[in-house]
């Protein structure tokens, strides 16, 4: 059976109660009609019963039997039976399944057969050093969802549990190795009709609602008749959830249970929003907190959801305390959420962002801003070497429609505007306690050593996890740098690819512009001849009016200036880009050659695992010695030397973390962030280049627009020329000398359209000889010009459109 790594080693619980029936020190076998068990196979002991691992007839399946004590069977038979009656009715994956209730003979004690929960109780889990600072996030959530689901079922069945605590939540392991948490021990439960309250007192004192505590523990009856409703379960659940998240109880008076007055003071006088109150010294002040402790292993994203939930559940004033419905709503909302993994390189923290399925990008950005301190406008989020916005396409879509690769992959977060390096965020690691140098080793010392050993082992596990996280962080730092560099390289490639296209476009536009100047020049000249040749004064006037108009167009040099500006910009872009590409390449070489992190051959993870296992083993020996209460000379010798060994392992472990991994991580954070800062500057530069490209394309668009206007104007002119001027010219004598001058004047403009001009010149020659032909000549030119105008129009239509380039200008200017 495959178990998650952190759960794979056997628990104390399991070690104490080996699951293999054959391995048992063979005690008495007992059996009822359906169940058979060996009295050596104890799974756990409670106030009312002993629970054994058993076999079920007829198929021999393993199960658990709860063997109620004689006194319970006799005096509390009603309690046991009540539990049995209740359990028989229940059928839910998060509530323990009961198979049968039988009586043992000849004792007559009740025996309840139920499903076996191999993982032991949640309490036994939390009691292990490994989970002394709370469960890892994944398992914490399984617990939360399972208890909420079990409780919801119990509510539907009209049941108040009344003894909710980690000891009454069992871990069942399914065939896939997944944990399923089940509510058990309904010894205190009872059915509650709607709105009905109950007055009897049950529960375990650390988890008791303040009013119940006052009545049950302090035996005070501040209100003559106290009614307790289902809200008492909410309080106990709040304490349980806090315990699971942190590994310790939220409300701790100095001296523990013996200091019940302070316990009541803490729980009954705490402010709203406070989720823990700890008194560290005798009669000392209470340390209140509205946050989960720094050692808690939950992500910041989940803490943000769990803390308000706890605050509402641990509300002293039960009128303000959350109802079950509110609790269920919140838990199932969390269950329905999606998470996004995002490495924030400025503080070196891998964030887990909890988002609702229907959230849109703006909401996601807000959540990121809350956890990273990077305002949404300054966030640059990359997935592999692309911006998230590029991958998601439609940023207004709901998160649940994002590609699965994004939702399950690793994203990287950069600050577009700030490149300063912040201090890396490392979770708190408590100080190791010191073993006092007390000899001889007597019982008190054994107790203390076992206690200190437990704490040392707990801290060592925390360090082991920390070392693993640091190695992952180092990998993420390098990835974050690589990812950004590749992204910038993509941008530079894109820009470099678009520059030649842009140049081509500009060249074509230039040709067109010049061609128009040329065409207008020709028209101007023709009209000029008309204005002199036409016999009719009105025609000459019309021609002159057109000439003035055209002269204005010809004098306007702004298209040429725009063209020049675009050409200059393009040249600048080329130079700028070649420098940028060189810089990025240079930096890449630097990154490859500078190596600052932990190496595989350093074996940091393996070393820390080995050392923390050694520390755990010593703690286990100390725990055994404590149980024994008497040590032989040899054992005492071993115990003393183990104290020295454990200190040595601790020093080595601290060295691995502080002097190796932590230093390397901090160094890598510095180095990669320096590189990232430079890359961000390059990124900003590419943004500026994009702006320049945009400006070139703007020029290009302006020119195109201008060309279109000119095409229109040209066509219009030709049309009018046809209508108004040429027909009137028929039969009019030409003034040869003027035309000759005109022909000479056209000479300098002949560079672009030699054919047109040659033909014009010869036409003028003909005109000098035979003015009768003027109509056909003008028509000929008119057609030629019209043809040219059409060609230009076509040329402009066939040109690549500026916005057809993949320039990213839009995206960058938008963002
Ligand atoms: N189904 C089970 N599978 C495995 N272990 C179990 C199971 N039920 C109970 N246990 C173990 O037995 C211990 C005692 O069981 P349980 O809490 O039900 O007894 P109890 O006498 O009702 O306890 P309490 O003192 O809380 O009233 C549990 O803490 C747990 O370790």
TrEMBL record:
InterPro entries reported for this sequence: IKK (IPR051180), Kinase-like_dom_sf (IPR011009), Prot_kinase_dom (IPR000719), Protein_kinase_ATP_BS (IPR017441), TBK1_CC1 (IPR041309)
Subcellular location: Cytoplasm
Domain Protein kinase: 37-338
The entry's keywords: ATP-binding, Cytoplasm, Kinase, Nucleotide-binding, Serine/threonine-protein kinase, Transferase
SMART domains per UniProt: S_TKc
Membrane-spanning intervals of the chain: none
Region described as Disordered: 790-815
Binding site for ATP: 66
Protein name: TBK1
Pfam family, one: Pkinase
GO MF annotation terms: ATP binding; IkappaB kinase activity
Gene Ontology CC: one annotated term: cytoplasm
E.C. code: 2.7.11.10
